[in-house]
Amino acid sequence: xxxxxxxxxxxxxxxxxxxxxxxxxxxxxxxxxxxxxxxxxxxxxxxxxxxxxxxxxxxxxxxxxxxxxxxxxxxxxxxxxxxxxxxxxxxxxxxxxxxxxxxxxxxxxxxxxxxxxxxxxxxxxxxxxxxxxxxxxxxxxxxxxxxxxxxxxxxxxxxxxxxxxxxxxxxxxxxxx
Length: 177
Fold this sequence. Notes:
Blueprint: H1 7-10, H2 19-30, H3 36-45, E1 48-50, E2 54-56, H4 70-87, E3 104-109, E4 114-118, E5 128-132, E6 136-139, H5 143-152, E7 166-168
Antiparallel strand pairs: 1-2, 1-7, 2-3, 3-4, 4-5, 5-6
């Protein structure tokens, strides 16, 4: 999915950051080679909220409080997952990053649903998307294909409903190269 196609639905990107500057250290530190379409979308649009429902986090997002820093989401998701899996191990059977091959949290809805990237299972495999809404939904789609279909109303998910919109949220650390 071409990033330019989102302009009609979400307006022009307001962030327009350099992908390598945003993702180089984050990917190396996390040991993750994030999918290109995801990195390009997040670097272009920045941290923000889709349809007033789904918050997307950025590796250079403001830390703490109302910030949407990606590494902080990983910590929050891991803690919540560990606590919830104690009582319901069958519902929380999927490992999360930083576990090897774990699902990588990238967003959270206003109602507490979580959006994850699903790492490829083979060397030549593709990334997918998963949503935890109390029940898990897995999609064999790239991040931008998933987002496009959700915004078009083709996936019928309670995490992306209504009129397409994007609202930038928080500040970003200064760019690095």
